[in-house]
Specification:
The chain has 179 residues and is of the alpha+beta class. The protein is built from five helices and five strands, in the order αααββααβββ. A three-stranded antiparallel beta sheet has the order 1-2-5. A two-stranded antiparallel ribbon has the order 3-4. The radius of gyration is 16 Å and the shape is globular.
């Protein structure tokens, strides 16, 4: 949270894609705009999976809830809204496959999944965080899709730019981990 305040001048919790076990970002990541994908949504997903497996209520209360609230706050404060009132994830990337993307599917699917978990009371967040989740649920763009042979097919982002960098499948993040 201190790093987010120092680097971006707003509240929330941001985990860069690459960071050392002691919390520092990889060389060149500190102070940069988060165009690389954030691990915050994935971390909350893994934490909730752990809780569902163990039913450890103290872990949910003391670990999952504060991280989830801070990750939601980051996405709320960091990205601008477009003329349609929807969050505009830019700059962003769709995993390591597309290093430049507008509205990447992993962020949209992950944030939708997390906000749904809050609103379906899987996470007992503060009243302020629940109200934030309700508002943000209306501000998230739809998953990027296009029609292929008359069928809707998930896309890595609304738009991708530049060369493909590897063979990850950002589209599948809407299947797992963000069911």
């Amino acid at each position: 949270e201190r790093r987010t305040r120092a680097d971006f001048r707003h509240e929330g919790l941001y985990f860069p894609e690459v960071m050392y076990f002691f919390g520092a970002g990889a060389k060149g990541n500190d102070g940069a705009k988060p165009k690389d994908f954030s691990n915050g949504l994935e971390l909350v997903s893994m934490m909730l999976d752990y809780h569902e497996h163990t039913q450890d209520k103290r872990f949910r209360r003391d670990a999952v809830v504060p991280v989830a609230e801070a990750v939601i706050a980051f996405y709320d404060k960091h990205y601008e809204r477009g003329p349609d009132g929807k969050i505009r994830f830019n700059p962003a990337q769709a995993l390591d496959t597309w290093h430049e993307a507008l509205n990447p599917l992993p962020e949209i699917a992950g944030l939708r999944w997390l906000l749904n978990a809050v609103l379906n009371q899987k996470l007992p967040l503060s009243k302020a965080a629940v109200n934030r989740a309700k508002r943000m649920q209306q501000e998230i763009p739809w998953l990027p899709v296009k029609q292929v042979d008359g069928k809707a097919v998930l896309q890595p982002a609304d738009q991708v730019f530049g060369e493909i960098k590897n063979s990850e499948n950002p589209e599948l993040y809407a299947v797992f981990p963000y069911r």
